[in-house]
Amino acid sequence: MKIYFPSSTAYDPKIFIGFTIVITLAIFLLPHVRPYIYLVFLLTFFLVLLLGFAVIHMLFPEGEVNPIERAALSVSTSLALIPLIGLTLNYTPLGIEKASAIASLFLLIMVSNVLLIIKRTRTNASQSKKIEVNMKLIFCAFIPFAVAAILRVYPHLISGLPFSVDSWPSIRYAELLLKYSPVYLNDMEVFGSQHNYVGEKLFGAVVSVVSGLQPIQSMAFCVPLAGASSILIFYAAACRLYHEKSVPLLASLFLATSFSDIILTAGVKGETYAHPLYLTLILLYLNRDVAFWKKILLFTLTSASLVLSHYFTAMLTVAILGSAILGSLVIGEKKGKNVEIRSLLLPMMLALSILIYFLLYANWAFDFISAIDWLSAFSYQTLTLSLALCLSFKPPIKKWSIMALVCIIALALTLLFVWLTTVRTLIPGAPMLPAHYMIYAGPLIAAAPLCVLGYESIRKTYDEHYVMPLFWLASVLGLEGYAVFGSRDPNLGLTLTYRGINFLLPPVAILLAIGFHELYERWRLSKIAKASIAIVMLLMLSLNIFGVYATIYLQERYMGYFWLYRVQEYRAARWVKTVLSDGTVACDVKIAYILKGYFNLRVDEFQGLRYLNGESGQPRILFTYDQMSKNGYVIYGGYSVELPGRWVDKTLTLNHIYSNGIADIYAG
Predict the structure, then answer these.
(1) pTM (2 decimals)?
(2) Close Cβ partners of 193 (under 8 Å, ≥ 6 residues apart)
(3) Is pLDDT above 50 for 420?
(4) Are 533 and 520 in contact (CB under 8 A)?
(5) Which helix or strand (DSSP H or E) is residue 6 part of?
(6) Distance between CA 220 and CA 561 in Å, rounded?
(7) DSSP-assigned states of every residue in 394-438
(8) Which of 54, 58, 204, 351 could form a disulfide with 174 if both were Cys (CB 3.0 to 4.6 A apart)?
(9) Around Cβ 127, how many Cβ atoms within 10 Å?
(10) pLDDT in the model for residue 359
(11) pLDDT in tens, 384-413
């Protein structure tokens, strides 16, 4: 169904100016106490969204971009501007205060709308022009976004606490920022060592001060919601790559329900906040319909926030864009097409932003990342780019029998790799997984043959941009190759390996969706065969969601179960803070993050393990919790080690000073 709106009513800046004034006054005048505080929080949410919508409508008149892309760019522009607003306010005498933050948002929205009014007046915009809105397309974009939002906010809703161990340092940083602003963001005396990424912390500080909520409340909800917006942006990017309506929908649903993406983007951390920003940069690269200066402007703003939020994601985005652009240039030249050399400016600008960030803010990274590491990572990127180019130019597979054989081989190789992780350690420091964990990898195993079909399908086109997923995939595989074989630090290699899965998922989702469409729509299959394929896809999506259930409810080991904090654990940690003025707490990594990262206490993550194993004397304070009996003692990297069968007996020699049924604290 299509609906047509007059251009004069599609976005009326005068109405939005009035709407902004009402919202701003309501935020100022409503009392910041329950139940009004929740209304203020909702109004803050609308004010943040209005910022992006106003800027995008000022830049792009009606009809220049489609409604889905406009919505995606509006959300991402808000996410890009909020940290920059917080950064600017922090380095002014005003600091990040309620009045200064609200005034900044209000002024930016007003200026954008006034400029739009002037622009329309000068261009004499037609009042009779009709704007076409495809409601089916909007519905298809909303469904995966809604699923993503529910699944990513859900861990916080059931616990009432922020999800992920990395959330606690971010929240404490935001609280200190609000307390001391204006302050240098890398001030060790104020923030300690928790200042690697500041994007989500600046965002949390601005949203918290505007809404009147504490960062532990506002960030626990808003940052995962920001992470969920990456699905909307990904949908718009998928539409740019492939115009069949079912492909963006299926790809977005697969990404929205992917267990790894949910777990790693449901927490309050830089990686979560960076996810929609890096996808926005890819969307801007794929958009060839807008003026290049507008693309550069949005790219610059988004790049700045991405680097502030997660420089590792920014560096990988440089590799992805560089690989995709070089690939498209080579393929375009081979086909005799005019190539757009200026696109190389995009990764160069992002690389320059990273360099400036390292020089001004994180020059420790030059010591952390050695020249050998850079050379090794570059060599793996070169290798995977070369392989992608070879695959792009190889003759297409024409016989269905050979295609079926290649799909079977891809399925077998993926299955073999997953099986090997259950019988031996493939990466130094990684655990050997239980055999039944193969079921959680089921969607990725089933995706392998569909990705082969998808790749062969896109090669039939004559547009070099259609091979973007292949070069996207190649860049991430280059990172994974470096992590497994080239990294000198096993802990770093292990971290890059499992976090790199998140960057594999978007191109895999696109290739999978194209392969499914090719198989379902174009192959001459019986109705029973098509029904079976549809059932398999539904099972894949269901298994993705089951992975979240296994983590949150079944508390499966090695799957991030310890990232879900319970109220009893938080209360026990707060109690330790009130009674312990000096000394060190012996605890595992899960508890160490909240004690050290949030309550600023000294911890020893291995003393408790040594004591429970009978390898050291009594600790002054020992913190244990019930899940240790099932899943062991969590150590660095997110993995746990088994405790002795009668480890509880060791606690009987200590004084039991606190218990709430979940957490127990002992004194030596």
Answers:
(1) 0.92
(2) none
(3) yes
(4) yes
(5) strand 2-6
(6) 17
(7) SPPP--HHHHHHHHHHHHHHHHHHHHHTTTS--STTPPPPPGGGG
(8) 204
(9) 10
(10) 83
(11) 888 888 888 878 777 878 888 988 999 999
